[in-house]
Amino acid sequence: MTPETLEPLGTSKQEIADLLARFAEALSDANVRAQSTDGRYVDAYTAGFLLAKIVVRASGHRVRGGENHLDTLRSVPWLMGSQVQSSADALEAARRRRNATMYDAAGLVDADDVAALIRRVVDFEIQVHEWLSTAHPELVG
Asked: Model pTM greater than 0.85?
């Protein structure tokens, strides 16, 4: 990730609240056992991606260029600090699996994969909320 993939763009408390609501919906959908495992995995990834997008937007940026998801995930440690590198790496791995699940073949993930990704996303959620309350308290609450 380089700063060249980010461009300045202001945000608002409402935008962050809207993204947090979309995150909560995606995470809730990922926990609906009546849907397919593939669908649950995609929803869990989407929840994690939305958290990464919150970090970018709260920092006063947007990602530009053709690799939006990849560049968003790569920007997270740069914006939040190296303590979130493992979360960003896990979401990047999930992005690749999600792409394969969506575009290549069904059945590439199982219930254990979904559960592991949901746990990772919930851990990242805690990190993002702590970071928001410390670094950008004006955008939450």
From this structure: yes
